[in-house]
Amino acid sequence: MRYVSTRGRAEVLDFSQAMMTGLARDGGLYLPETIPTFSAEEIAAFEGLPYEEVALRVITPFVGDSFSQDELRGAIARAYAGFDHVARAPLVQLAPGHHLLELFHGPTIAFKDFAMQLIGQLFQLALAKSGDRITILGATSGDTGSAAIEAFKGLPNVDVFIMYPHGRVSEVQRRQMTTPAEENVHALAVAGTFDDCQARLKDLFNDHAFRDEVHLAGVNSINWARVLAQIVYYFTAAVSLGAPGREIDFTVPTGNFGDIFAGSIAKAMGLPVGRLVVATNQNDILHRALATGEYRVGTVEPSISPSMDIQVSSNFERALWLAYGRDGVAVSQLMDELKSGGFAISQGALQALRETFESGRVSEDETTAMIATIRAETGEVICPHTAVGVAIARGHIRPGVPMITLATAHPAKFPDAVEAAIGIRPELPPHMADLFGRPERTTQVENDADQLKSLILARRTA
Ligand SMILES: *Cc1c(COP(=O)(O)O)cnc(C)c1O
Questions:
Q1: From the CB of 194, is ligand 1 less than 6 Å away?
Q2: CA torsion through residues 119, 123, 126, 128, sign
Q3: Tens-digit pLDDT profile for residues 278-327
Q4: Residue nearest to atom 15 of ligand 1 (CA)
Q5: Catalytic residues
Q6: What are the domain boundaries of the chain?
Q7: Residue ranges of the Tryptophan synthase beta chain-like PALP domain (predicted)?
Q8: Collapsing DSSP states into helix, strand and coil, what is residue 311?
Q9: Which atom of ligand 1 is nearest to the CA of 386?
Q10: For residue range 350-400, what is the model confidence (pLDDT) as tens digits?
Q11: 170 — alpha (psi -120 to 50), left (phi > 0) or beta?
Q12: What would the CATH number be for the domain defined by 91-107+224-422?
C-alpha cells in the first residue's frame, strides 16, 4: 500500500514510513493511494468476533508488507490487553434507536488509547527492525498527550515530548501527563492555546534540519496510523446493530476531525454508514464550514469540553483532499489561504462533504443540561464531550436508522463539569485512584519554536 500527501509534493511512502513520519515534508498529511473495500459478506462475517480479530481484518489491507500477519496480530493483542472491558468498545443503549459507543475503557480513559496503544506497539516493532532512535513530539488539548505518554513511557530508543496549553487542560488530564516518573517523558506547559501548540508542532516538523537531527516522529491525529486504528470500532459497533444489512448513523464529538474522518473511511470501505454528524461545542469552525462553506478561523473560547477547543482542525485537510478529487494543488492553495484567516470551499467539494457529513453545535448550558438529562433518563453519567455529541445526535435521529454516539471519554476525566451538572463527582477507575497523590513534573515554556528546539536538544536522553 502506497501513501501520498494531501499537498501532492512529498515522497510517496509505505505504511511504516508514513507512520514514523507523521506530517509529510510538503506540510501535508498522508493518505492511502487507494482505499481498500470489503464485500457485504466479509463485513457480515465480523459479527460476534473479538475486537482484536476485527481490528486485524480491517487494518491488514492498509499495512502492505510493513508488518507480517503475526507481527500485526501480536501488536493488536498487546495494544488492547490492558483495556478494562472485554468488548473493548462496548455499546450501551440510551433510548430507542440511540446508542452510546463507550471508547473510554483504555488506560487513560479516553478514546485516544485505541490508536495510541496500537501505535506504541507498531513503533516498537519498526524501531526494533531499524535500530533507530526517535523523538516523539506531540501537541495536545489534553487526551492525546496522556495517551501518548502512557503508550511510550519507559521505551528504550524513544523520547516523548508533549506540549499542552498551560492552564487549559483538566486537572486529571494534566496529572496523567505530569506524574509518570519515566526519564523519557517530558511534559511541556506552553504559554498559549492548543492551536498555538499545534502551530509550533508544525514549525518544528517543517524545520527539516532539526527534524532530521533529532529523528522527529509525530503521533498527533495527523498520523495516518491513528486514523486507521479508529476505523475499527465503526465496524464492530455497526455490525453489532445489524450492518451490513442496514444503515447506521454516527454522531461524533469533534475537534481535530480525526475520529469522525475514520468513520468516513469506514464508509468508503463499504460499511453502510448513513450520516456522520459532526458535533462541536462553541468552538464551531467545522459546523460553520459545513453550514456556510466558509472555513474561517475564530478565537478559541475555553469550554467545559476542552478536548474540542480547537479552531484549526488538522484532519479536515484529508476530507478536503478527497472532496476536491485528490487535487494536491487545490489543497495547497486552500492551506495557503488559511494562513491569512480562512478560505471558501468550492461548491463541488462542499456538496461532496455534505453527502457524508452533517453538523451541529451546542452551547455550554445545553451541554451541562444534557449531562443531567441523560442521568435522569438512563442513570448513565456521561462526560461533557459525549454530552455535546448526545445533544446533537438527538436532533439527527432518523426513523428506522440506529444512531450511535461516540462516548469519547470517561466522566471522571472531567469531574468538575460533571459535578456542576448533576451534583455527583464521578470516581476514577481503580487503576487511577492514586492519581492525585503522585508527584508532578512539568516544564513551562514560551509559545516559541526556538525555545522548544533548544529544550528538546538539551533534554533528550540520547
Ligand atoms: C480528542 C477528543 C475529541 C476530539 O476528537 P478529534 O479526533 O480531535 O475530532 C473529543 N472528545 C475527547 C474526549 C477527546 O479526547
A1: no
A2: negative
A3: 999 999 999 999 999 999 999 889 899 998 988 889 899 999 999 999 99
A4: 143
A5: 112
A6: 91-107+224-422
A7: 101-332
A8: coil
A9: 11
A10: 999 999 999 999 999 999 999 999 999 999 999 999 999 999 999 999 999
A11: beta
A12: 3.40.50.1100
